[in-house]
Amino acid sequence: MAERLSNREGIKGMANPTRYGILRVAYWLQRLSGLGLLAYLIGHIYETSTILNGKAAWDNMLSLTETPGGHIVLVIVIGMCVFHTGNGIRVMISEGGKGVGKPGQPEYPYRASSLNSKQRLCIWVSIALAALAMMYGAGVLFGN
Amino acid sequence: MRESIIMKIHYGTALGAVALVAVHILMRMSQKFSDSLAYQNVLANYHFLPYALMLEVILVLLSVHGFNGLRVILLELKQGATYERAINYGSIAAMAILIAYGSRTILMAGMGIS
Amino acid sequence: MATVTVPKEEKTAVVTSPESTQKTVTLRIARINPPESTETKFEEFKVPVQKWTTVLESILYVKQNLDHSIAVRYSCRQASCGSCGMKINGKPRLACYTKISELESNVITIEPMNNFPIIRDLAVNFEQLFSTHKKMKPFIINEESEVNSDTKEFIQTPQDLEKFLQFSYCIKCGLCNSACPTMATDTSFIGPQGLAQAYRYTADNRDKGKKDRLKIVDQSHGIWRCHFAGSCSNVCPKGVDPAMAIQLLRGYLLGFGK
After folding, report:
1. Which residue in the set A52, A59, A140 is minimally distant from B109, CB to CB?
2. How many domains is chain B built from?
3. Among C7, C50, C191, C212, which is least packed by CB within 10 angstroms?
4. ∠ CA A107-A111-A112 to the nearest 5 degrees?
5. How far is A19 from chain C, CA to nearest CA, in Å?
6. Which CATH number covers residue A135?
7. What is the pLDDT, as a whole number, of residue A1?
């Protein structure tokens, strides 16, 4: 009941990428891609450890991952990796106070200068690079 | 440890990982992708000391960055002294386990114990 | 928060308007009265609107003509006092500063702001916001006070003033805290309002409290829990831009700021 009365938006609110513009979408994608990449890292470390069990075990693992399904997962991982990197660099630079505009006299209609076009452009570029990398990755993986 | 120091490590590991993972991926691209995953080729990678060392560094960087990121998300989801202590120590333990497990592969495959 | 929509008789007042074709909209107002009831019910009211009618005016119309029991906090009616923050059509806004016409909808859903405990209906408790604000030491810290006869007055150029002026326009309406994704789950987070005010005083060239404030914000539920989602600046009705203040403050911690 206390939780209800505190009226916190909760995970549903935190994970809702709508309502507040592209920066909120980028925040959501950054989290999602981060979690996805961590899951992939764990899986990848397990996957590569099978090499210690000899050629048969390695080939057996490859027969599971070198499939259309496995390639689709890898293409998604490529996209997550590129977006997480591009957007992460933007966030890192911004968190150092760079590229967020200069304080000044706010004037109606009070558009926040931290949500400037450079920030939005960087997000779109990250998304575009991720899409390009996914296409290239799909070409390499499915072209084999 | 102050949160600013932790986050500086978070940023540092991210930048280091970006550079080294790019090299790791480019190495896969130096030949046909499916060939690069052939048993002998992968073993040869582990036997090449500079590459094996690079894999070890990537492993440490990504484990620290990944589990610190997870720690941040989990700390924001729920609060409380016991929970937060569990998350902090739990993420350090998870980092250590993943690094140990990955290092075992790099070390044993590099030394030809397989 | 559990919500139920009660089928209820629509309440409409007899409007003595000269124009019979006057536009009306439906207000869906959240009703909750803790601790007696923890369930939110929505009541619907039809209200007449002009193109300049604000959400606050329409709520006050309901209070005067249809249901006087609706709890709502308001004061200045001109976006100066920060009292009437509420969630309007899913987004935190000031009711006095939001025109019905700009919402482009015939149904306006009005709820209490998220991330603040509900007192009743649309009125929320600001205790946490004010206590966090106080923790940021929102005053000039300087032992050489201007009031001492043996010290000179503090010189501040227009450029010095511009470094913090924008952030001093904060009216503590709480919209930024309500929109923040971290505040949605983190009950210990300082929040964009407090962090922006920490920067406002730190950036003031008369102030000597930078070290103290940086120590306060550099903790596990402090400035590092901001991930620059920009939602706070997106909803700020005064152009304070808390997201910018937070990143500039973080610049000090990362060694980029002077």
Report:
1. A52
2. 1
3. C7
4. 110
5. 7
6. 1.20.1300.10
7. 47
